[in-house]
Design goal:
The complex is a heterodimer of chains A (280) and B (355).
Chain A: H1 3-7, E1 12-17, H2 23-36, E2 41-45, E3 60-63, H3 66-76, H4 80-88, H5 91-98, H6 102-117, E4 122-126, H7 130-146, H8 150-164, E5 169-175, H9 179-196, E6 199-200, E7 203-208, H10 221-247, E8 252-256, H11 264-277
Helix pairs in contact in A: 2-11, 3-4, 3-6, 6-7, 6-8, 7-8, 7-9, 9-10
Chain B: H1 3-9, E1 12-16, H2 23-36, E2 40-45, H3 51-55, E3 67-72, E4 75-81, H4 84-95, H5 99-106, H6 109-117, H7 119-134, E5 141-145, H8 149-167, H9 169-174, H10 190-200, H11 202-214, H12 219-234, E6 238-245, H13 248-263, E7 268-276, H14 285-289, H15 297-322, E8 328-333, H16 342-353
Parallel strand pairs in B: 1-5, 1-6, 2-4, 2-5, 6-7, 7-8
Antiparallel strand pairs in B: 3-4
Classes of the chains: A alpha/beta (280), B alpha/beta (355).
Chain lengths: 280, 355
């Protein structure tokens, strides 16, 4: 499949995965690849940490915080003046930071609003860690039930409509090829599909060690131990990949292990494009 | 403070860090180590991902009620997983003035949704659960396995936030016992309520107010507990242990987390650098690379690649520790297999305390 076709399948792509699996770099590489394929792309960051460096200047980026999303939302309701008064009194802040689920709803609401402007061909969201992704995506469902009528209820329904429409939104999960994160990913994937009804894109297996190794050892114990360790690591990766294939019927994008200081533009993006090309 | 000092003297250890670094296994290993030196330790996981039971090989057997995992002489290792709804219900039962109030709240739709399914609630309830376990005579040490970065900070900040809300003038006016509904809300409050009604919807606001008013009389109990949790987290009997792995991206998240703790006036006592890439001898990567034309060239190349990973990890960890001058650091080598039972945890505990 070509990159443009693959990345045009939905307008919002939420990238989710545990910390340390390279979720943010994969999201950045996807944004880079989409921009390169001629799609007008926005990379959205919602975790409030430092953005990934080394991206092409052409990739547009936006950091969303619940507070800023709230101010935008008030403006869109025509409540700019009133809300500023409430904001000044600290009341809005108090409620937004205390009421569970509101921050999640604000972030998703902002993403939905960006999607509806039609300004971008693709919005890539560098999403929350796997366990939190469920909480984020479930918030509109819970709030729709908890809150009778009114704007919050409406907002929750509109977000659910976006989440449930595979042409508008997909979730792409990222994992390292180790057993624990892969089995956690499988659980999370089923929860996301069954409970929230969001379509899942291919799973990214990031950092697969597939270097070919010499068959035979030698008398040097340092070299031998290093070889045994490497073989063991590759076997673990194969087991984890096999488990994923067996348990989760989704296409996989397998990315080889790159060095720790990889440049996203120069190395990860072409690798990702090559993996996308192998998809049927 | 060294790990041994922490395990011998503290009452609470909070294990924090990003996901995917083996935090849950480390927390379990700390509880086991504490049991080995004669303490009665309990590990509680508040991560919604159910890894604790898997890590110690007790899937389906760990719930909100603590279970004794292992007795070692006088020492004990216990484990529990936070059940948010159950803990919240028991708080309501504890602070309600009568059975009627309990029923009223537990059956409130708004309460059921808020207490069962929204992630923010977890943070408040986790702090409450920590306080309860710390006051429980069965345990002398509580080890907390927190959820990944963003919400781990939320966990630290949650009690303070809840207390602020409960102390706020608006909240106190809303739950005032003389008010029985929107119509009787004092004139001072009416503009605020009207505006709030526009924003969240009148029916939603009615529900929220009814929910808050159902709590009338209990707020002091909740507020005091929240204040106590906030104090406990910042107190001298609590240590924060940051679990990290030596990769650029996870260390960056770890720094973000350390900064957040600092803003909350909390210092990290110990860093556990987990899954450090191993070395197989003293040959530097650069030296190994000079042998790639030898007869065993492919083997040398493999050694060079692995040692280069180890050297990069060392450099990144050293850089990270520069920013945390008051913390000590323990390095744990990467293991060849996932930890899936208590034997694995026992091995891990041994490598944590090895000199």
């Amino acid at each position: 499949m070509d990159t443009r076709h693959f990345l045009s399948a939905s307008r919002v792509l939420i990238v989710a995965g545990k910390g340390g699996v390279g979720k943010s770099t994969v999201a950045a590489a996807l944004a880079q690849a989409a921009t390169g394929a001629g799609l007008h792309t926005l990379l959205v960051e919602i975790e409030g940490k430092n953005p990934v460096v080394g991206l092409d200047q052409r990739v547009e980026r936006l950091a969303i915080t619940p507070g800023a999303a709230l101010a935008d939302y008030f403006d869109s309701l025509g409540l700019g003046r009133v809300s500023r008064r409430l904001l000044a009194a600290g009341i809005v802040d108090l409620v937004a930071s205390t009421a569970p689920g509101i921050d999640d709803l604000l972030i998703l609401g902002k993403i939905k609003q960006l999607e509806q402007t039609g300004d971008w061909d693709l919005i890539i969201v560098d999403g929350p860690p796997a366990g939190q992704a469920i909480g984020l995506l479930r918030a509109p469902l819970s709030l729709r039930q908890a809150v009778r009528g009114g704007p919050i209820h409406t907002q929750a329904i509109e977000i659910l409509n976006m989440l449930a429409d595979p042409a508008r939104c997909r979730v792409m999960m990222v994992s390292t090829p180790e057993l624990t994160p892969v089995s956690e990913l499988i659980d999370t994937a089923f929860e996301i599909e069954d409970q929230i009804g969001v379509a899942l894109g291919p799973v990214v297996l990031n950092g697969i060690d597939d270097e070919s190794l010499p068959k035979n050892g030698t008398s040097n114990s340092e070299l031998n131990e290093a070889l045994l360790y490497r073989r063991n690591r590759q076997q673990r990766h194969e087991l984890a990949c096999a488990l994923l294939t067996q348990k989760l019927p989704l296409p996989q994008l397998r990315l080889p292990r790159l060095s720790n200081s990889t440049s996203i533009c120069l190395e990860l993006t072409p690798t990702l494009e090559a993996a996308i090309a192998t998809l049927p | 403070m060294s790990l041994e000092q922490i395990l011998r003297t503290q009452s609470v250890v909070v294990c924090c860090g990003t996901g995917g670094v083996g935090k849950t296994s480390i927390a379990a290993a700390l509880a086991l180590s504490a049991a080995q030196i004669g303490r009665r330790a309990i590990v509680i996981t508040i991560d919604p991902a159910r890894r604790l039971a898997d890590a110690i090989g007790l899937r389906d057997e760990i719930g909100n009620e603590p279970v004794l995992v292992k007795q070692i002489g006088d020492g004990q290792m216990w484990a529990t997983m936070l059940d948010v709804g159950e803990t919240f219900d028991s708080l309501v039962t504890q602070f309600a003035s009568d059975a009627e109030q309990v029923t009223e709240i537990l059956n409130n739709t708004f309460y059921r949704n808020v207490s069962r399914s929204l992630s923010g609630t977890r943070d408040y309830i986790a702090a409450e659960r920590l306080l309860a376990l710390q006051g429980d005579d069965r345990f002398d040490l509580v080890i907390v396995d927190t959820p990944p970065t963003r919400s781990a900070l939320a966990f630290v900040e949650a009690p303070e936030r809840l207390a602020r809300f409960l102390e706020h003038r608006l909240f106190r006016l809303l739950i005032s016992p003389t008010l029985t509904g929107m119509k009787l809300i004092s004139t001072a409050l009416q503009p605020v309520v009207r505006t709030a009604g526009k924003i969240v919807g009148a029916a939603a606001l009615d529900d929220a107010i009814a929910f808050l008013q159902a709590f009338a009389g209990m707020e002091d109990g909740f507020r005091q507990r929240a204040r106590q949790s906030a104090t406990l987290l910042r107190g001298p009997v609590t240590s924060f242990v940051l679990v990290a792995s030596a990769r650029a991206d996870t260390l960056e998240e770890a720094s973000y987390f350390a900064d957040g703790l600092q803003r909350n006036n909390i210092a990290i006592d110990l860093v556990i650098a987990n899954r450090m890439p191993p070395r197989f001898g003293d040959t530097a990567a650069k030296v190994a690379l000079t042998h790639v034309q030898d007869p065993d060239g492919d083997l040398w190349r493999n050694l060079a690649q692995l040692h280069s990973e180890a050297e990069q990890a060392d450099a990144q960890l050293a850089q990270f520790m520069l920013g945390l001058t008051s913390a000590s650091c323990i390095r744990v080598a990467e293991r060849s297999a996932d930890i899936i039972d208590l034997d694995g945890i026992t091995d891990l505990a041994a490598s944590l305390l090895a000199p």
